[in-house]
Amino acid sequence: MADTAARVQDTSQNDNARKIRPQKTVRNKLAFVEAELAEREQTFRKRQLRSLEPIGGARVRIDGRVLLNFCSNDYLGLSKHPLLRQRAAEFAERFGSGATASRLICGTFSFFDAIEKRLAELKKTETSLIFNSGYQANVAIIPALAGPDSLILSDRLNHNSLIQGARLSKAKVVVFDHGDLDHLCRLLQTHSGYRRKLVITESVFSMDGDRTDMDRLVAIAEQFDALLFVDEAHATGVLGPNGMGLTCGKKVDLAMGTFSKGCGSFGAYVACSQKIKDYLINKCPGIIYSTALPPTVAGSISAALELIPGMEAERKRLHESSEFVRSSLAALGWSSGSSSTPIIPVVVGPDRDTLELSGWLERQGILGTAIRPPTVEEGKSRIRLTVSAAHSGDDLRQLVSAFEQWPGRNTGGRI
Ligand SMILES: *Cc1c(COP(=O)(O)O)cnc(C)c1O
User: Fold this and answer.
1) Distances from the Cα of 32 to the Cα of 37, 58, 404, angstroms
2) Annotated catalytic residue: which of 116, 210, 231, 353?
3) CB under 8 Å to 248, separation ≥6 — which residues?
4) For the segment 360-415, what is each residue's pLDDT rounded down to a tens digit?
């Protein structure tokens, strides 16, 4: 009987009837989960969380061993700075452990004004607005700026949060070749008729460590009357005047950045005009419907902004250390592409070789996590090294020596 009923429903013209047909044979609603995990396993792409404990500024304890950490984004070592920890504790004492509501309800505790004002001074913009994380800022701000009648021009290597934000906006998204501003120009010429145009890129690219030509980018955006959105996640604390990024003093409509990397804390910001801030407060659900950052986090952000302008010596050391690692690796035959920042990609290519190199580094006492697609393009798996001002000369030499001794070095597995 059941069989007959199923057959009748199968031949029905009614799609709905087919959808609700009871599935007697296969009952495994998690089949897609198992299939995906099995595929990831087979292709060397299964990702796993590893528990670890930070030791000082540049080391971690992992599986009972202490490793030199060459993959954190804590470029200045600020996450362990006494002033950040102390200010976090002070703010908790004074304001409590949570912001209790969104910014618009009653979460704009007095410290927000001070931080946003100071940040705007440093970024040389009229004002700024704090967001809860970089990811959240990008997926929230972009759909507030662009809609189905808009055109978004997006760099091919933009961070996932920028890509997701663009998708959520329902705008027409056109991708330009990485860093290729001539291509951007041509696309702006050929795609006309949109009510709004938004160019989205990063000032320092998170996986390649190269930089955008900011002056030219600003000129192009002006020429085509496009809004310009630049993600400074990896430039904040590290590059530009006072270490506050490459957009400082340039005509960038929205300079977004994070406090979670070079600032050693958490959260994000957008530096912009008062008009854009007012617009976002009214039109951006990510600020309207989310509880404000907790006082502890705001405390460490405020301390980081106090320290960063005065950390020229640390930045100098950071850039010298990065140059040392790049040139030493180059001498061993490893290319780090067009990196000119503390992000140094060692592109191996195949996933499996990259994992082997990462495993080798770990046996030599170095944490250098393998980065595989879809985080990077197919065939461009890599060890993404990040240098910190907290690394000593000996730390850097230990890193280079581990690469030098890799047995796979002369048997392929490198570009
Ligand atoms: C890390 C990163 C983000 C996300 O910032 P979080 O504060 O970690 O959420 C956004 N954009 C870029 C380019 C990043 O590298």
Assistant:
1) 9, 40, 42
2) 231
3) 122, 123, 124, 240, 241, 242, 255
4) 999 999 999 999 998 899 999 999 999 999 999 999 999 999 999 998 876 554 43
Please say if 319 is a catalytic residue.
Answer: no
Provide the whole-model pTM.
0.92
Distance from Cα 233 to the centre of ligand 1, integer Å: 6
Which of 278, 367, 344 is CA-nearest to residue 58? 367
Task: Cite the DSSP H helix spans in 267-342.
Answer: 274-283, 285-288, 295-307, 312-331
282 is catalytic: no
Structure confidence at residue 284 (pLDDT): 98
Residue 44 one-letter amino acid = F
Q: How far apart are the CA of 69 and the centre of ligand 1, in A?
A: 19
- Mutation test of ligand 1: which of 135, 162, 205 has the most ligand atoms closer than 8 Å to its C-beta? 135
| Cα 10 to ligand 1 centroid, rounded to whole Å | 48
